[in-house]
Design a protein that fits this description.
Helix content: over 70%
Number of domains: 1
Oligomer: single chain
Strand content: under 5%
Number of helices: 9
Distance between the termini: 33 Å
Largest sheet: none
Number of strands: 0
Structural class: mainly alpha
Length: 192
């Protein structure tokens, strides 16, 4: 299962529209899409280590643009689109707790969600809904997402061949670990 997916993403990474596709996935993930852009970022950097930082830049810029869109959903469209996303993740009953968390630790919440498997779209929508300072939100989102994507790009650029061999030898284990981290991020949100 993971081998076919891995091979497909490596082929996609070499496609002429790969950068555009990465930008779309990064944008959507920050506002409504459940799959993180790392599934494209990693194979794209492995396929083209010479363009690692350009790929990370595209991923970061698109992710921040998507975060701004997520903020707008929370700010302007919470009663329709935002509420639907909150309902999908079963967070309706936790909005008061999340508001209290934002009042005290909003900046830390944005930074942590931006670099971890916690679903960033929930934080972007909540930031708009709770009317977190927009300019500070954009700065924090850029810092967090940039740190995450550039760290991945740097590691893969620096240790690309050994990391690729490591990934390919342990593909099933890494695939399950990635899924566990993704599910864990959603579970962590449910516990807040």
């Amino acid at each position: 299962m993971f081998r076919a997916l891995y091979d497909w993403t490596l082929r996609l990474a070499g496609h002429r529209h790969a950068t555009r596709s990465l930008a779309v996935v990064s944008f959507c993930e920050s506002s409504f899409f459940p799959i993180p852009p790392d599934v494209m970022l990693v194979p794209m950097v492995l396929a083209r280590r010479d363009r690692a930082y350009m790929i990370a830049t595209v991923c970061t810029v698109a992710s921040v643009a998507g975060a701004i869109f997520g903020y707008a959903i929370g700010y302007f469209l919470f009663d329709t689109v935002g509420q639907w996303v909150i309902d999908v993740y079963h967070l309706g009953s936790r909005m008061e707790d999340l508001k209290a968390l934002y009042d005290e630790w909003g900046d830390i919440v944005i930074l942590v969600a931006g670099v971890t498997p916690i679903p960033f779209k929930l934080v972007t929508i909540a930031s708009g809904f709770f009317q977190f300072n927009f300019f500070l939100f954009v700065i924090l989102a850029a810092l967090a997402r940039g740190a995450r994507f550039f760290a991945v790009a740097w590691l893969l650029k620096r240790y690309g061949a050994p990391m690729q061999a490591f990934i390919e030898q342990r593909l099933t284990l890494i695939g399950w670990a990635f899924l566990a981290a993704l599910v864990g991020g959603f579970a962590l949100i449910a516990l807040i």
